[in-house]
Design brief:
By secondary structure, this protein is of the alpha/beta class. The protein has 17 helices and 20 strands.
């Protein structure tokens, strides 16, 4: 490929010394090679993408670049100078920061308290001065054009606000190199656009970003160059102009192909086919209004909409996580409102939108997580027989192609894609009539995305139905029908083969039916 950057290169195409260089990074965890040949050069003032399948070594490199992991080999340099000792945390924080997909703020504290945690301004007699802290926090946020009330509890921040607050906090410590780990995974289109505008403004003021994302179109929108890791090694670094989508995917997966259209050969489900999920006048206070919808046996129905559309709240209500009015029937049986147990017992399998928060318990094994919804069926009088549990887990591991050391491995040790497969296994464990799936491929690599969508396709070809809620157009293409929600209502419906431009317009509330 043209434009390949040599290992250990210190050439800054913009002039001067690169913001950060990592060369020859190697790291093992026991027998597992997490990085064999990690190399990256990020130029001063650029937004640089780091991509690769789950398990490619991205997270390990981030751990090394932030001083949280000690590599067995290799070097890291910031602005041409060697990285500080690992125990000098203040020196690391002044050079690099990472804003993770999941919050690192303390939710019970205010924005100001989070910004100055462990370094609160002092007043008379050396006591913490809340007045000075609020004033300095307001000045800091204003200097970086972050419009957030400093007295707002962190728990009330939107994802977009939380990320900007974390970036501002990092910059206040002196760091001008910021790693963004899946920053758009939980944002709607408008919020992504606003975030990108802020990143461009910060970049223009001298901030350098390393942008990690599984959503490839964003890389072409916000980044100048991209580095690909595969199988714990650096594969290529090039400009985004030189790496079109097919070349980028080929570099990531090692095969010269793009994404397979999962479910392209699905047969149309007849309009008079048996309903497996029926919603009548379903309302969730504050988010969903009078929704009527039917999913037929053997059918996948997608639900598209912005973050404010109510689509996620609708799914949570079906799973019993939210109260609602109206009627929900599964295979003709009416489901009690606000009861997770009733939803599970009456045939709803649920995959939540955030696997790290709601999907699994990281310290528990693959077997324990996968069979959590059927624990009462794995032995007499509610006791779990380990052999029976492990046998069921092995069946799920094989069926969903979970790459794991075995049923006893903690889920927290798995890559994102494999952890998501375990969450899918749990949703299927109770043999549900209908699957309710929220963002089923969020934050997973290309091949895991195909595998997960393939599982949904296979599981719904005969006896099950599925309601698939997603912001990803690639997820929605597996669906037999897609409905669009705006402001809590269904405003449009499309059969397979829908027009992307029209669907996106409707999601943004500017479709013909919403004018």
């Amino acid at each position: 490929m043209t434009g390949h950057v040599a290992k250990g290169s210190t050439v800054d195409q913009k002039g001067g010394v690169p913001a950060v260089e990592a060369a020859g990074i190697a790291k093992r965890f026991g027998p597992t090679v997490a990085l064999a040949d990690g190399n990256i050069t990020v130029l001063e003032g650029e937004t640089h993408a780091l991509v690769g399948r789950n398990g490619a070594g991205k997270s390990t490199l981030v751990g090394v670049l932030t001083g949280l992991l000690r590599p067995e080999a290799g070097t890291v340099r910031f602005g041409g100078e060697p990285a500080p000792p690992l125990d000098d945390r203040a020196a690391w924080r002044s050079r690099v920061a990472c804003v993770y997909q999941h919050p690192s703020v303390v939710k019970d504290l205010s924005v100001a308290e989070n910004l100055f945690l462990h370094r609160q301004p002092r007043g008379r007699l050396g006591l913490i001065s809340p007045r000075r802290m609020r004033a300095q926090a307001a000045e800091l946020l204003e200097s970086w054009s972050v419009p957030v009330d400093v007295d707002l509890p962190a728990a009330e921040l939107t994802v977009e606000q939380r990320q900007l607050v974390e970036i501002a906090g990092a910059l206040s410590l002196g760091a001008r190199f910021v790693i963004l780990d899946e920053p758009t995974a939980q944002l709607e289109a408008r919020a992504i656009s606003r975030l990108f505008d802020r990143l461009r403004a910060l970049q223009a003021s001298g901030v350098t970003f390393l942008f990690i994302s599984h959503h490839l179109p964003e890389i072409y929108e916000i980044c100048e160059r991209v580095t690909v890791f595969r199988d714990a090694r650096h594969i290529v670094t090039d400009t985004v102009d030189n790496l079109d989508r097919d070349k980028l995917v080929a570099a990531m997966i090692g095969e010269a192909r793009g994404l397979v259209q999962v479910g392209a050969d699905r047969a149309l489900v007849a309009d008079d086919a048996e309903p497996v999920l029926e919603l009548s006048a379903v309302t969730v206070p504050g988010s969903v209004r009078e929704v009527d919808l039917t999913v037929r046996r053997g059918e996948i129905v997608g639900v598209a909409g912005s973050a404010a559309s109510g689509k996620r709240q609708l799914a949570e209500a079906l799973a019993g996580l939210r109260g609602r009015t109206g009627t929900v029937r599964v295979a003709g049986r009416e489901i009690k409102s606000g009861s997770v147990r009733a939803a599970l017992d009456d045939g709803i399998g649920y995959l939540p939108g955030d696997r790290n928060i709601d999907g699994f318990v990281g310290g528990l094994s693959v077997a324990e997580n996968a069979t959590m919804s059927i624990a009462g069926e794995l032995g007499p009088a509610g006791f779990v027989v380990p052999g029976k549990r492990d046998a069921e887990a092995r069946r799920m591991i094989a069926e969903l192609d979970v790459h794991t050391a075995g049923p006893h491995q903690p889920v927290g040790e798995l890559s994102g894609g494999n952890a998501q497969k375990v969450v899918m296994a749990r949703a299927l464990a109770s043999d549900p009539e209908v699957l309710v799936l929220v963002q089923p491929t969020a934050g997973v690599d290309v091949r895991s995305k195909e595998s997960l969508l393939g599982a949904v396709d296979a599981q719904t070809r005969e006896r099950r139905g599925a309601l698939l809620v997603s912001d990803e157009l690639e997820d929605l293409r597996v669906c037999d029908r897609v409905v669009v929600m705006v402001a809590g209502r269904i405003v449009a419906e499309h059969r397979r083969g829908w027009d992307e431009g029209r669907l996106v317009a409707e999601i943004e509330g500017i479709g013909e039916d919403n004018v």
